[in-house]
Amino acid sequence: MAARLAIPPVAVLDALGAPEYRRLWLVGLCLNIARWIDLLALGWLALTLTGSPLMVGVAAFCRTVPQLALGPFGGVLADRLPSARLLLGSQALALAAGLALVTGFATGRAGYWTLVGLELVLGAAWALDFPVRRTVLFALVGQARVTNAISLETVSMQIGKMVGPVLGGVLLGRYGAPGCYAALVLLYVVALALTLGLAPRIPARVKPAAPEPLALLAGAREVWARPTIRGVLVITVIMNVLVFPYQQMLPVFARDVLRIGPELLGVLVAADGLGALVAALVVAANRGFGLHAQLFAGGSMAAAALLLGFAASPWYGLSLALLLLVGVAESGFATMQSALVLLSAPAETRGRAMGILSACIGTGPFGTLWIGLIATHAGAPLATAACCVLALVLMTPMALRLLGGPGLPEQRR
Description:
CATH topology: Growth Hormone, Chain: A
Largest sheet: none
Helix content: over 70%
CATH superfamily: MFS general substrate transporter like domains
């Protein structure tokens, strides 16, 4: 019995056996490390430049709002235009913004609003990259290995969440903003070089028959009609508006509650990533894993509940342990989020489905503004706790449907 349940270690790395996917995974790793360096620097610099939790929320809003505004259109482009060009374009845009940040802070000309304006550009690049890269991922590995590939993508995200904040905190503490953003630029250069080598090997997609002006609407109707996707989209909005804004408040927790600097703040953020990394590796190892919806819903609820404990913690060690557990729970949400949508959506609308998912993820900026406003008047702990309680109340009906559901009914039609 024990022998039958044993999982060969190679199962974890199944999708990485494909050279094209391996290169795409490395591109994602570079982009994810760069993203977390950027997010840590943005929160710390916004707080340093203004001293206001609300302005930290405003900065985070501007960094992530392009995903809401542009995500669906990125999905339409992913269905209709060459993916290689889209990936190269998004990375070139991010590289240009990174160079401008290095120059601005090195010369002393960059202030709060310069930072916010360039973060808008970085947000636009990420909004285009998200649906395109995941559509390419499905094309490279196919349906049979998509859960493994998405799990490995989550591994990449969590390695980025571990390495990026620690590296960003050290660079910010020792070399200031110019050193931090120089690392960002280097990572974008490596990602761009890897994508140039991958471009000729990306397969063509099936183009939808709908005219361009109607493509987004037709795709939205198609994906919303599927109960599993609908549940994923609703919970994604709740998580991004009410739960994940705690990440933008971590600099405030660091300064006002835990009394730590940027180096230990980076370790605090990385603890979340370490927990999620371990959980994502476990999921990746299970080739025949079938409880996609259950893990997604259960992980979402558990993450919100654990954050209530984090909000009440006055001690750094306890906060570190709680964020490690939050990362484990978040991994269920993050790993299964894209996998459920890709597995449930029709082939001709996958790009648009991912674009709509990207827009739902992009609702997070409203949460950062809200939590920043509450934190300004009531403090970050109370603001975070209130948002998590509301998230649990709103998620419970949809989560119960997913937890008790039969899995992926759309795939059996």
